[in-house]
Amino acid sequence: MKAAVYYENGGPEVLRYEDVPDPACHPKGVIIRVEAIAIEGGDTLNRFGGPLVTKPHIVGYQAAGEIIEVGAEVTHLKVGQKVATVNNFGSHAALRSVPARNCWPVPEGYDIAKASAIPVTFGTAHDCLFEYGRMKAGEIVLVQAGASGVGVAAIQLARRAGAKMILATASSDERLERLKPLGMTAGINYRVNEVPREVRRLTDNHGADVVVDSVGGSTLQGSINSLAYRGRVSMVGAAGREPMVVDVGSMMGGNRGLSGVFLGAEIMTDRVHDMIQGLIDDAARGELEVVIDRTFPLSEAAAAHAYIESRAAVGRVVLVP
Ligand SMILES: NC(=O)c1ccc[n+]([C@@H]2O[C@H](COP(=O)([O-])OP(=O)(O)OC[C@H]3O[C@@H](n4cnc5c(N)ncnc54)[C@H](OP(=O)(O)O)[C@@H]3O)[C@@H](O)[C@H]2O)c1
User: Fold this and answer.
1) Cα–Cα distance for residue pair 56/166, rounded to 1 Å
2) Is the distance from the beta carbon of residue 294 to the nearest atom of ligand 1 less than 6 Å?
3) Cα separation of 118 and 62, whole Å?
């Protein structure tokens, strides 16, 4: 099969489009013919510095397509079914071997590219807001990196849950402008404004009740400093590629909370599995919008990764084999 592979970590240029052996079907898994690959922020981070557990390595968490083979022990999935899938690696390929547990049926007629972008992206945003952030209707939410895949999902889920105000940060006014139709109340361009000060100004000094922070590094302290009394930060990523250094003393006075969030640790549980299926079904009914910024052929995976790293994309970038 064709795949986008690399032999060493590095920039987008390490990706090559090559022939590799077809994957084998595990008794508890399926093989899908990949139709769309939603590139996760974690895919670019893994390409940059993650372990090469196979060589050449095929990176990638999320892909959707049609099942072409079903493992001997799998009873609930069948050949011909369209599914969205997640695995620790292997999305950037024409075929994918994946545990049956990590497959979610895609409702008839729903856009397969959009479906490919839901499990990790929306599932993570959902856990950040509700499972760990304990967000309630009427609260104020701050989404750091609002134009990221996780950010675009978090803004919509917070709106749907009745947030009183949704603030988001981004590196340009143009990127913030694109978040308004999704439910963002006000945007903060962090290149020209100090985030905690702007959050206080925009919220009448209340602060944010819940912050979704997928950037980490120096941004994380700004998230903590933006919190309201009893506010909670869900720390979910390291897009900023900086060391995570925070002053934990700043948590105490305001009875503030900081939770780490890792969807992968619970993706096999019934709770998360059902939550993701619910999000796919909601999106197929038109209740959530999966924003796809641009689509590239799989053979141009290096260009797609470079485009993401140029910080031009809003939402997801998709590869098509
Ligand atoms: N723990 C989990 O379960 C989990 C699940 C999903 C994702 N994640 C993590 O969450 C993070 C975001 O994922 P994503 O898929 O939403 O990412 P994405 O769509 O690629 O977006 C990342 C955004 O981060 C912002 N950013 C800030 N500093 C950056 C820098 N130095 N380099 C590049 N971008 C920077 C950029 O927006 P601006 O230019 O507007 O700042 C960029 O659009 C990643 O670290 C990912 O690994 C974790």
Assistant:
1) 43
2) no
3) 9
**Any atom of ligand 1 within 6 Å of the Cβ of 239:** yes
Query: Which residue is closest in CA terms to ligand 1's atom 2?
Result: 262
pLDDT tens digits, one per residue of 21-64: 999 999 999 999 999 999 999 999 999 999 999 999 999 999 99
In the block, tokens 């895949």 appear at 149
Is the C-beta atom of 189 inside 6 A of ligand 1? no
Q: To 10 degrees, the CA torsion angle through 263, 266, 269, 272?
A: -20
Rounded distance from Cα 239 to ligand 1 centre (Å): 4
Q: What is the CATH number of domain 121-264?
A: 3.40.50.720
Closest CA to 58 of 69, 47, 68, 45: 47
pLDDT tens profile 107-136: 999 999 999 999 999 999 999 999 999 999
Give CA–CA dist 220/197, Å, rounded: 14
> For ligand 1, atom 20, which residue shows the shortest CA distance?
41
Tokens 């797609």, residue located: 304
Domain ranges, ordered by start, for the chain: 2-117+290-320, 121-264
What are the residues whose beta carbons fall under 8 Å from the beta carbon of 245, sequence distance 6 or more?
Answer: 217, 218, 221
CATH node for 2-117+290-320: 3.90.180.10
**The domains spanning 2-117+290-320 and 121-264 adopt the same CATH topology:** no
User: Which among 45, 188, 215, 259 is the best mutation to test ligand 1's pocket, defined by most ligand atoms within 8 Å of the CB?
Assistant: 215
